[in-house]
Design brief:
Layout: H1 7-18, H2 23-30, H3 34-46, H4 51-54, H5 63-72, H6 80-91, H7 97-107, E1 115-119, E2 133-137
Antiparallel strand pairs: 1-2
Length: about 140
């Protein structure tokens, strides 16, 4: 199976086509098949949208249960494997782990990363001005 074109590659196809490059030249530059370039340009002209964007997630019917799990687990981080196992055991979920992963990534933002910086000094007696400092930025 061939790989999907990334969003940047699709935009590059459109820009290079507007600049007058041939489909073969665009395909050669991006390292893809000429058919992929023709397909993308044809879809752009017709205004066709990707049908997968409108398709609901497989885990959508369990959205409320997933949201409840996310709220109860927010203090210690979310373990998606544990969430999947909970859905299977408690809510008769029959979908895949990957479907739960896609749903959670799309609907629930990543938690903010807490940045820590630790400044250490060489060993030995420390004057008051050279003590170990830990800064937490929230």
């Amino acid at each position: 199976m061939e790989r999907r074109l990334r969003r940047e590659e699709v935009m590059t196809i459109e820009v290079l086509h507007e600049r007058g490059l041939s489909n073969r030249a665009i395909a050669r530059q991006l390292g893809v098949h000429e058919h992929a370039v023709r397909y993308r340009l044809r879809r752009q002209v017709s205004g066709a949208l990707d049908g997968r964007r409108e398709k609901p997630f497989a885990a959508q019917p369990w959205g409320e249960a997933i949201a409840h799990w996310m709220q109860t687990q927010s203090d210690r981080g979310v373990n998606l494997q544990a969430l999947y196992e909970w859905l299977v055991a408690e809510h008769a979920y029959s979908g895949s782990y990957k479907a739960v992963q896609r749903f959670v990534r799309a609907k629930h933002p990543k938690p903010r990363l807490r940045v820590r910086r630790r400044v250490e000094t060489p060993p030995g007696p420390l004057p008051e001005s050279r003590s170990v400092v830990t800064c937490v930025f929230a």
